[in-house]
Write a structure and sequence with these properties.
Blueprint: H1 8-11, H2 15-30, H3 43-60, H4 68-83, H5 92-95, E1 109-116, E2 126-134, H6 138-145, E3 153-161, E4 171-172, E5 188-191, H7 192-210, H8 216-223, H9 225-242, H10 261-287, H11 294-317, H12 328-342, E6 346-349, E7 352-355, H13 360-378, H14 383-395, H15 405-408, H16 417-422, H17 433-447
């Protein structure tokens, strides 16, 4: 593969990139939610913006020989959209030629232009433009080449972006692109710099609020953006591949089917706790070796850091981020906190938080095993029985709302699954008294992480 060395500091100020960014922004301001420009009065301006956008891409393209076919097709897709009077855009042809998963090289840069929505950002399929850089440290490459194969996983960091990513979105997924048909998806991008930056900002504040004394190694995460990014890459590598691995009731997400949000909570938590368990296993296996190489020392260190990252991101950030409307990630954070507290390895005493760190790994793994046992049993259960068992697991740890019909079990069990789902309250598992007070103290800090990148941390 041919690559070009790029000075990323000057790239973000390159006149052609500024032209791309500005013209994409102008086009987005004219688009309807589906990506079309419905008002013909705007078409003359839109044609000028497309001309600037394609000229900017063409000027930058020689810097990205690894993406030559994609960038050429992106220009063609833009021109076809223009020639079709700006109806709903279709970037299928360029999307199927973009393959960042084939070039996972640490530091490699991509120029990306698509009409797309951004998860946890905008639901509008507007033109977005990004400059991103691959993050692929050697120890992660070794993990992926060994026991943790994940050919679609592409960790990246922001260099610059248009407004759709000035949000909480930390993923770049092909399924968000406007296209005429759905191809097989072969990659998914995770912005590890955003994940790391918001983790560091939120956990730094949470440590102050809860007066938690961090273990020395965990404290390093708050001081080193690159270290935290690499930790998140290891976590995400294992998490991402877990969704379709294990003893699953066919498809854990039941694609295209609506189901109670606490099932999504358990699925996301299952994947995080799998990453946690594997990190514990790696750390312990390496600790048992009579001697270790520098590479093994580095892996052992990151394995421990993954454990701290999972716990702190879950209980400090996830639990108090987002609304209280079917917040499945929030519930997962509440569940982990309550589990550790009720197992007496997490203590909130005299308004100070503390952990019995020697006991934490096995305690967290016990919760993971509970979820895996639920999944294993549910292979032989009807759907509604699985839902009820999942509710029993969650409600056995996190207290449901007193008005909950699910808590009372006065449910129309002879009805349809949709009827049962509709009876789940938007805030079926309200924040505990601890989290109510904690959320008020953390609200502004959490809000401040929208749009954050590694540069801002």
């Amino acid at each position: 593969m041919t690559t070009v060395t790029i000075d990323t500091r000057t790239l973000t100020q390159h006149p052609a990139w500024l032209k791309v960014k500005q013209s994409a922004t102008e086009l987005a301001s004219l688009q309807s939610p589906n990506g079309a420009i419905d008002d013909a009065a705007y078409h003359a301006d839109a044609r000028a913006h497309v001309a600037d956008l394609t000229a900017g891409i063409a000027e930058l393209a020689p810097l990205f020989p690894h993406d030559a076919a994609y960038l050429e097709a992106a220009i063609t897709d833009l021109e076809r959209w223009r020639d079709g009077y700006f109806k709903e855009p279709d970037f299928y042809d360029s999307l199927v030629l973009f393959h960042p998963e084939k070039n996972r090289i640490d530091g490699l840069v991509h120029l990306i232009v698509f009409p797309m929505y951004t998860q946890n950002g905008s639901r509008d399929r507007h033109i977005e433009a990004l400059l991103v850089q691959v993050v692929w440290p050697d120890f992660v490459a070794g993990l992926e080449a060994g026991a943790y194969t994940n050919a679609a996983f592409v960790p990246i960091q922001f260099l610059d972006f248009t407004a759709g990513y000035d949000t909480n979105s930390a993923v770049l997924f092909p399924e968000t692109v406007a296209m005429r048909e759905i191809p097989p998806f072969t990659w998914g991008g995770i912005f590890c710099d955003r994940e790391a930056a918001r983790f560091r900002r939120v956990v730094r504040a949470a440590v102050d609020v809860t007066r938690l004394e961090l273990p020395e190694l965990a404290a390093e995460l708050l001081d080193d953006q690159r270290l935290t990014q690499e930790t998140f890459v290891m976590w995400d590598l294992i998490h991402d591949r877990t969704h379709m691995r294990g003893d699953l009731p066919f498809d854990p997400f039941m694609i295209k089917q609506r189901m109670p949000f606490f099932l999504y909570s358990l699925e996301e938590l299952r994947c995080d706790l799998t990453a946690f368990r594997e990190a514990v296993r790696i750390e312990r296996e390496l600790a048992a070796l009579p001697s270790r190489t520098p590479e093994e020392d580095r892996l052992a260190r990151h394995a421990k850091l993954v454990q701290y990252a999972v716990i702190f991101d879950r209980i400090f950030r996830f639990a108090v981020t987002g609304t209280r409307v079917r917040n499945y990630d929030g519930l997962g954070g509440q569940l982990l906190f309550a589990w550790l507290h009720q197992k007496r390895v997490l203590h909130w005493t005299d308004t100070k938080l503390a952990f019995d760190w020697d006991e934490v790994p096995d305690c967290v793994n016990e919760l993971g095993l509970q979820i895996e046992q639920l999944y294993w049993r549910s292979i032989d259960r009807p759907k509604v029985s699985h839902w009820l068992a999942a509710y029993a697991l969650v409600s056995g740890v996190v207290e449901p709302h007193p008005a909950s019909v699910w808590k009372s079990r006065d449910l129309p069990l002879k009805g349809t699954p949709k009827e049962l789902t509709d009876l789940v309250m938007d805030d079926e598992f309200p924040l505990s008294m601890f989290y109510e007070a904690f959320e008020k103290k953390m609200r502004d800090v959490v809000a401040s992480t929208s749009g954050i990148t590694g540069v801002d941390a």
